[in-house]
Amino acid sequence: MCRFRRQVQVLEATIEGGVSCSYARQQLSALRGAVNGMIAEVLESHLRETLAQPMQHDDVTQSTESSINDTVTLIRTYLK
């Protein structure tokens, strides 16, 4: 969360300071990347807790683990 807060502060200072539009766009892109990364982490955690946790660790099949990993990869690719 500190990362987001700092990036928002930089963006605010950029806009208020009248810095070039290209720099403001760069800061917006960095903030979007940080938010998308956090979304991917939350979704990955949710998938792993929802699909794998209810089962005993020994019962989590390679297929289930592979499906989770494939889904996480897809989400991360989409959010880039």
TrEMBL record:
UniProt-listed GO biological process terms: negative regulation of DNA-templated transcription
Gene source species: Formosimonas limnophila
Top-rank taxon, per record: Bacteria
Protein name as annotated: Transcriptional regulator
Single GO MF annotation: DNA binding
Family of the protein in this entry: Belongs to the FrmR/RcnR family.
Pfam families membership: Trns_repr_metal
InterPro entries (alphabetical): Metal_Tscrpt_repr, Metal_Tscrpt_repr_sf
